[in-house]
């Protein structure tokens, strides 16, 4: 196989990642890729690159026949959708890191790639430098994949690490994460779990061929967690993590959610701390594979973007093999989870929603219930809408070890 395809790149965005990509391409001629033009918002801002490269006119990149690759690295999801959809429609290959845009337009993006025979790569959109998408796409055959479980948002993991290990209040941990650049000035997408739900939407497609929307995934962030929850976790030897989970239940159904989770010391996720990400891929033959690394930041994201650019030199594209296996998986809410609910008033929780109750505890300051509940009842419970109540799932139920989940032969 030859690698002589010359990549002429139009770059959207020149933040820390965009500048990093520019510098690496300048220093690595063996990649046979060069940036012809860069589209930015502010024309008068001083940048560490020749001014003649920059423009505020997106059409100069999109309509340039010499540019055969668009690299999109902007924050605005709708603007990114216009850039990516137009580029694919023009027959240009595209590399993107915008998980919100990809999750929101997944079905349309699949259609555009097929219709225009173009390549759209986005490894950087899920877990930064950790090669989750490429591994799911290339290595794991669908009938051998039981689950994908991960800490896939570094901001919330940093906050929870400070809360769990240092006893730091949520507000202080969030402020520190923002000061260190691990959380945005508006952290709502991260702390409410939306970012992880966007990533899980993408993972579901490559793991099981499920084309869904983020709204189909039950998603609870970390804003409801109470200091008493950390006390309970320490007493039981757990660590609290925000975990995204895709679990095959049987031959057609998959459980999918993003929930705060009690992680036991025996899990590889237990020691995933601070801004790091970790993903466990569970298979029928090889048991569990664990991938660990930095999920965000200048260099991890740049690494993933560069890997995608390099792959375009030999015409690589996602084949979306799981869409064509003949098995139509769907997201199911008909399964049990073992959960912990803490609250101010125990009477606020309808205990009849639970299939079984293991423990009820009351004290002057905080009350909690542990037990098993059908997923659909949990998602639709009135008491879940009360922001004073926190819900944490036990990892043993999420691992498919719960006896209520169908045994896979």
Overall CATH class of the largest domain: Alpha Beta
Task: Pick out the low-confidence regions.
Answer: 398-409
Number of DSSP strands? 17
How many helices? The count is 14
- CATH architecture descriptor name of the largest domain: 2-Layer Sandwich
- CATH homologous superfamily designation of the largest domain: Dihydrodipicolinate Reductase, domain 2
Helix content: 25-40%
Mean pLDDT: 93
CATH third-level topology of the largest domain? Dihydrodipicolinate Reductase, domain 2
Radius of gyration equals 22 Å
Structural class: alpha/beta
Biggest sheet architecture? 11 strands, mixed
When the domains are counted, the total is 2
Please indicate the percent range of residues in DSSP E strands (runs of 2 or more).
Answer: 15-25%
Assembly context of the chains: single chain
End-to-end CA span: 41 Å
Using the alpha-carbon principal axes, give the shape: globular
Write structural notes for this entry.
By secondary structure, this protein is α/β, with parallel strands linked by helices. Helices cover 32% and strands 25% of the residues. Helix 7 (154-166) packs across helix 8 (170-179). The protein is globular and about 70 Å long. The chain starts with 6 loop residues before the first strand and ends in an 11-residue tail after the last helix. Mean pLDDT is 93; it is low at 398-409.
């Amino acid at each position: 196989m030859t690698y002589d395809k010359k990549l002429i790149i139009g770059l959207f965005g020149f933040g820390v990642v965009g500048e990093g990509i520019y510098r690496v391409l300048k220093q690595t001629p063996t990649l046979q890729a060069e940036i012809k033009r860069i589209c930015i918002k502010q024309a008068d801002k001083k940048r560490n690159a020749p001014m003649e490269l920059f423009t505020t006119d997106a059409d100069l990149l999109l309509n340039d026949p010499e540019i055969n690759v668009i690299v999109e690295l902007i924050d605005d999801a709708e603007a990114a959708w216009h850039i990516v959809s137009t580029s694919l429609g023009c027959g240009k290959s595209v590399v993107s890191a915008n998980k919100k845009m990809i999750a929101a337009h997944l079905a349309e993006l699949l259609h555009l790639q097929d219709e225009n025979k173009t390549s759209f790569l986005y490894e950087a959109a899920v877990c930064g430098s950790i090669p989750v998408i490429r591994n799911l796409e290339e290595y794991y055959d669908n009938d051998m994949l039981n689950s994908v479980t991960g800490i896939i948002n570094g901001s919330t993991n940093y906050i929870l690490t400070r809360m769990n290990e240092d006893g730091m209040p949520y507000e202080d941990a969030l402020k520190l994460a923002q000061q260190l650049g691990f959380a945005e000035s508006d952290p709502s997408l991260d702390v409410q779990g939306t970012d992880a739900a966007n990533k899980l939407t993408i993972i579901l497609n490559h793991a099981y061929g499920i084309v869904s929307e983020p709204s189909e995934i039950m998603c609870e962030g970390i804003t409801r967690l109470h200091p008493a929850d950390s006390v309970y976790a320490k007493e039981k030897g757990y660590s609290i993590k925000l975990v995204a989970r895709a679990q095959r239940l049987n031959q057609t159904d998959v459980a999918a959610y993003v929930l705060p989770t009690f992680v036991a010391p025996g899990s590889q996720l237990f020691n995933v701390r601070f801004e790091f990400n970790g993903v466990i891929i569970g298979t029928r033959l090889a048991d569990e594979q664990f991938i660990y690394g930095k999920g965000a930041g200048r260099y991890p994201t740049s690494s993933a973007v560069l890997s995608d650019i390099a792959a375009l030199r030999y015409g690589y594209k996602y084949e979306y093999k799981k869409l064509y296996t003949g098995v139509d998986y769907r997201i199911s809410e008909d399964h049990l989870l073992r959960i912990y609910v803490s609250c101010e008033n125990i009477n606020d929780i309808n205990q009849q929603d639970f299939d079984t109750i293991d423990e009820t505890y009351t004290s002057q300051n905080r009350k909690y219930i542990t037990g098993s509940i059908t997923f659909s009842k949990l998602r639709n419970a009135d008491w879940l809408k009360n922001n004073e109540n926190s819900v944490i799932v036990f990892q043993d139920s999420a691992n498919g070890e719960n006896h209520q989940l169908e045994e896979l032969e």
